[in-house]
Amino acid sequence: MTETPVLIAGGGPVGLVLALELEHRGIDAVLVERNPSTTKHPKMDVTNGRSMEHFRRLGIAGEIRGHGVPEENPMTVVWCTRLAEWEVARFDYPSIHWGRDIIRTTNDGTMPLEPDLRISQVVLEPVLKGILERGAKHVKVRFGHALESFTQDEDGVTATIRNTASGATESVRAQYLAGCDGAGSVTRKELGTPLDDLAPGEVARASGGLWKLIKTAVKGLIHGQRPPGGEMYMIHFKSSDLDFMERFGTAWHIQSAVGGTIISQNDRDTWTIHVPLPGGVDATELDPQKFLFENVGAEFDCEILVANPWRPRLCLARSYGQGRVWLAGDSAHQVVPTGGYGMNTGVGDAVDLGWKLAARVEGWGGPGLLPSYDAERRPVGFRNRAASARHLGVRVQIASHHTPAVHEDSQAGARAREAYGAKILELGNLENEALGIEIGYRYDDSNVLCYEDDEAPPVGMAHYVPTTRPGARIPSLFLEDGRALFDLLGKGFTLIRFVDRDVESMLAAARERGVPLDVLDVREDRVRTIYERDLVLVRPDQHVAWRGDAVPDDPGAILDRVRGASRS
Question: DSSP code of 18?
Answer without folding.
Answer: H
